[in-house]
């Protein structure tokens, strides 16, 4: 059964209205990066958004991402991005009109972000995103109720950044433990702000990214990479169990991306030639969304994105996310 994007109830304005607040990275980002900043405008460039909505929307996919499917599962609309909230505040000069736009919550996620600083100041850390929530609360734009949900998605940018700084050294167990501790600490802070519904993702299998499988000519996942993400997930599961015991008043859910990605790749996408390949594939020294000095694409797009699981080297397609979401939510 496909997910429906029609809300299952009429959004209210009272204390029991469902709201969603999103924190994390590109798996959750629905357009927080500045489309005019060359350093972070990839998700605002063609062919991103090719399948939905038909043009770039700031999402790192040809269509929808995890946040969209999660909101639909809740029966709410995808919340407005913090970037748009700030833009509207500057335009209107008061919170009154902007507050109405935040009726479904706010998305604070930035593609490329992590628990720790990753690739530059544009990539707001998880703690920085929570500070943006604090500012929004102080401005009276939003409030947190028992029907509010906080979604935290951390897909591994901390490990990518670590690899760039230490190219000859894998992220060891000590660093992985620090990342996991940072995730749990963020959940504790969100609880302290009033959330009693928390959802957090574990890691997808790193070794199945096209960025990795190209080393085997796209024939198999990399066992070593999968062991790294697997260790993170085992440690996170242990820490979440302890957190649940310490916060009996809170509903804490783990979105098992490891299982959902693995089942999707081994299921409906198993016999596709695109199983471990990017639909949007780089040419020469380019990348998906990049063009040369003459404006010609440095990438090629597969003929059937709906048959591919991966859109680019690390992000699922709209169809990929739909498959993952069916496993997560049904």
From TrEMBL:
This is GDSL esterase/lipase. It comes from Adiantum capillus-veneris (Maidenhair fern). InterPro entries: GDSL (IPR001087), SGNH_hydro_sf (IPR036514). One of its GO terms (biological process) is lipid metabolic process. Keywords: Hydrolase, Lipid metabolism. One of its GO terms (molecular function) is hydrolase activity, acting on ester bonds. PANTHER family: OS04G0650200 PROTEIN (PTHR46020:SF4), OSJNBB0059K02.9 PROTEIN (PTHR46020). Signal peptide: none annotated. Belongs to the 'GDSL' lipolytic enzyme family.
